[in-house]
Specification:
Layout (H helix, E strand, L loop, with lengths): L13 E5 L6 E5 L6 E3 L2 E3 L1 E3 L5 E4 L2 E5 L4 E5 L6 E9 L5 E10 L4 E6 L5 H9 L6 E6 L2 E2 L4 H5 L2 E4 L11 H12 L6 H14 L15 H13 L5 E5 L7 H16 L3 E5 L11 E6 L3 E6 L1 H8 L4 H8 L8 H10 L2 H17 L18 H18 L1 H25 L7 H4 L2 E2 L1 E4 L2 E4 L8 E2 L1 H10 L1 H8 L4 H8 L6 H22 L7 H10 L3 H30 L10 H26 L3 H17 L10 H7 L3 H12 L11 E3 L2 E2 L11 H32 L5
Parallel strand pairs: 11-16, 11-17, 14-15, 15-16
Antiparallel strand pairs: 1-2, 2-5, 3-4, 3-6, 6-7, 7-8, 9-10, 9-12, 12-13, 17-18, 19-22, 20-21, 23-24
Helix pairs in contact: 3-4, 4-5, 11-19, 12-17, 12-19, 14-15, 14-16, 15-16, 17-19, 17-20, 17-21, 17-23, 19-20, 20-21, 20-23, 20-24, 23-24
């Protein structure tokens, strides 16, 4: 048994099995959290060949054909950047032929003016945004071809916080540890690891504070602690001292110095130069992504003949008199002894000791990032805790449905009538009609212009004149349609529309910010081991339950104030609730889709009105749809199908309320209340609407997953 002591290695990570045919050994991944890599590819099982390279966490093994030779790289990652080039929009040069060598366990600062390419260079080195040309080697291996194999060994702290502000420091680190550390880590081991990293960044006393209560510098230290959980070999930090006062800047730089002294390679992007002397190397970039210097900080002063690092900044900026200063600075460095000593010579030495290129496994195995079910449970728990801690937002979410429902009930009660869903309010009949042969009148015609439609049915069945009219017009139910007055169901339609639109609104607002607001956290977790489906379903399930609860509250309050009636094949309350629940989930999918597409919070909320207003226009309620083009286009909107189902359940007559048609000349509502539609016809219309809502939900779910996948692209 080989024991590998590192947080990235599971207790039972892999097994080497001797095989008789064709001989040799087969390595098997024992469902580890951070995988087994052979020649840079994740495998679940692989028959080893001579000179194959195996990676387990920071440990590298070479299979000789008869044995494994072990190399511990947890404290010895060397980075070689060779002729890196990158251009942006309009062919603007971002990196211009940059070469450098970062030895193991060194602290390197990348400095330069705004737009000099500091973050671009760092992201080229860490693989977040690879260079378009050139090579990055980690311990002599092509890093861009082995991103997955090295990803767990890298720590990365971007400019934005990668911790949720509505969690305590300890809980934020706890969820990260559960995500990144092996599944067989016990609660005691996780607690111990959290204690160790908090001690490293001097944040133990604030472990129970909400992250939102911390200062900017303290939040940055929590982000560093989060990355330290997996004990990375290489650490990248983008502007960690930005916005800090000089005292905190110095404290942060000395913290990073200690981390480098404990065996990590640290690469830091910064504008601040006050404490660069704490670094082992400094990399000065000039405009256009040009390398102006790489070497020890003290020697940089000698090279530039400047006493202060801030003066070096100024000396590298182009002027009107000499716009070629960056080009000249680059050329001067590349012909200097410093370039030979700190770049060219180390690159030559590294090339001589590079391992031979390995052949990749013939069949790449599917890479399973963590256990999907475990991640789903963990992410759902974290999301519930985030909602619970953000009490103001949670209160708003919980009050949406009752407030809208109460306002609707009050308005209906005072402005319309609380019996708006009674059958005689939805459908009213005349006591007489005019035909080409004269009037057909009920006996009550002399007393009233309107009458209950059940009386008309009795007239058409039992009265001589009524029976004659019915027999000549297709039977009782068809003849009845001539007596039904246009308009009475319009008020009921308005109430149903508000309910349908309200549920879409609830779902859309619930989801519109939930992905985009944690974009930086998502991208960092995705780079480590986060799977898309567990993440997506953690949002859908938690917010879906909330949406279902909101729909239930809405229908209960409305039914108490404005009782619902009719129903087709189920009691009216569950039948209407299923429609509203599906509509709410469709609205949630719309919101989450917006959140997955939008680049930031503000843009997401700007999209919401653009998404919601067409829900009103194409519902068919305010503007009846009679043209094929608008009818087909309207099918993508949840409110359209919600109204088709709700109107059918409550017995609305589309031909009497604006003549809205679902397709062609087919009326949108197929209810059974005094209509020509049978129970099976009405059931089919409701089930069609439910199926359409389900299809919208599934299609949007696939789009969400697709847009989340798009975030993986490395620009």
């Amino acid at each position: 048994m080989v024991v590998l002591n590192h947080p990235l290695v599971s207790a039972h990570h892999a097994q080497l099995i001797q095989v008789q045919t064709p001989g040799g050994y087969r390595i098997v991944d024992l469902n580890s959290t951070n995988h087994v890599y052979v020649n840079g590819q994740a495998v679940t099982g692989y028959l080893l060949n001579a000179r194959d390279e195996i990676r387990i966490g920071p440990f590298r093994f070479i299979y000789t054909g008869t044995e494994l030779t072990q190399h511990d790289e947890s404290r010895s990652i060397r980075i070689d950047a060779i002729e890196l080039k990158k251009a942006g929009n309009n062919k603007v040069i971002l990196l211009n032929d940059i070469s450098l060598v970062i030895p193991p366990r060194k602290f390197v600062a990348v400095v330069g003016g705004s737009g000099a390419g500091k973050s671009t260079l760092m992201d080229a080195l860490n693989g977040l945004r690879p260079a378009q040309q050139g090579t990055v080697l980690y311990n002599g291996q092509d890093y861009y071809r082995n991103l997955a194999a090295f990803s767990a060994q890298l720590g990365y702290v971007p400019q934005d916080d990668i911790v949720h502000r509505d969690l305590t420091v300890y809980r934020a680190l706890y969820y990260a540890a559960r995500m990144r550390l092996p599944n067989d880590f016990t609660e005691e081991q996780i607690a111990q690891r959290i204690h160790e990293v908090l001690e490293d960044v001097e944040m133990s006393e604030r472990r129970d504070l909400l992250v939102s209560k911390l200062s900017g510098g303290q939040r940055k230290r929590v982000s560093i602690a989060l990355e330290l959980l997996a004990n990375p070999s290489v650490f990248f930090l983008d502007e960690p001292t930005s916005g800090l006062d000089p005292g905190l800047d110095r404290k942060m730089m000395f913290l990073l110095r200690r981390l480098a002294d404990r065996g990590r390679t640290i690469v830091l992007v910064t504008h601040a130069t006050n404490n660069i002397n704490t670094c082992d190397y400094v990399c000065f970039l000039a405009q256009g992504g040009r390398l102006a210097y790489f070497g020890p900080p003290e020697e940089a002063r000698v090279f530039f003949n400047k006493s202060d690092f801030a003066e070096i900044y100024s000396s590298l900026e182009p002027t009107k008199e000499n716009p070629h200063i960056p080009l000249e600075a680059e050329a001067r460095f590349k012909t200097s002894p410093d370039f030979l000593k700190y770049v060219a010579q180390p690159l030559r030495e590294g090339a001589m000791t590079q391992p031979q290129n390995q052949q990749p496994p013939p069949a790449k195995k599917t890479l399973h990032f963590g256990t999907a079910w475990k991640q789903f449970i963990l992410l759902s728990m974290r999301y519930l805790e985030l909602l619970k801690n953000d009490r103001g937002n949670l209160l708003i979410l919980l009050l949406q449905a009752p407030v809208i429902a109460l306002l609707l009930v009050v308005m209906v009660h005072f402005e319309i009538n609380s019996d708006v869903f009674q059958s005689d309010k939805i459908v009213q009949c005349r006591t007489q009609i005019l035909t080409s042969t004269g009037p057909v009148a009920l006996p009550q015609a002399s007393q009233s212009e309107t009458i209950g439609c059940d009386k008309v049915i009795d007239f058409l069945k039992n009265d001589t004149a009524g029976s004659a009219y019915a027999s000549g017009h297709g039977g009782t139910q068809k003849a009845l349609q001539d007596f039904i007055m246009p308009g009475p169901g319009a008020d009921a339609q308005k109430v149903l529309f508000i309910m349908a639109f309200g549920t879409v609104l609830f779902g859309c607002i619930n989801g519109a910010r939930e992905i985009v607001k944690e974009g930086h956290i998502y991208r960092r977790e995705r780079a480590v081991n986060l799977r898309i489906l567990p993440y997506m379903f953690s949002k859908i399930v938690v917010l879906g339950i909330l949406s279902l609860l909101q729909s239930l509250i809405l229908i209960v309050i409305v039914d108490l104030g404005v009782p619902l009636h009719q129903g087709v094949f189920l009691p009216v309350i569950p039948e209407v609730y299923i429609t509203l629940a599906l509509t709410s989930l469709a609205g949630l999918m719309v919101g989450l889709t917006v959140s997955a597409i939008a680049p930031n919070n503000d843009r997401a909320m700007s999209f919401v009105p653009i998404i919601l207003i067409p829900q009103v226009i194409f519902s068919g309620t305010l503007i009846p749809l009679k043209d094929w083009f608008t009818q087909i286009f309207a099918t993508i909107f949840p409110t359209r199908w919600a109204m088709a189902a709700l109107g059918s359940s409550l017995g609305l007559h589309a031909d009497k309320i604006g003549e809205d048609h679902l397709f062609g000349s087919d009326p949108t509502y197929h209810g059974t209340l005094f209509s020509t539609y049978s129970s099976s016809d009405a059931t089919a219309r409701i089930l069609l609407a439910w199926l359409a809502l389900a299809v919208i939900i599934v299609v949007l779910m696939l789009l969400i997953a697709l847009f989340l996948k798009q975030k993986d692209k490395r620009a």
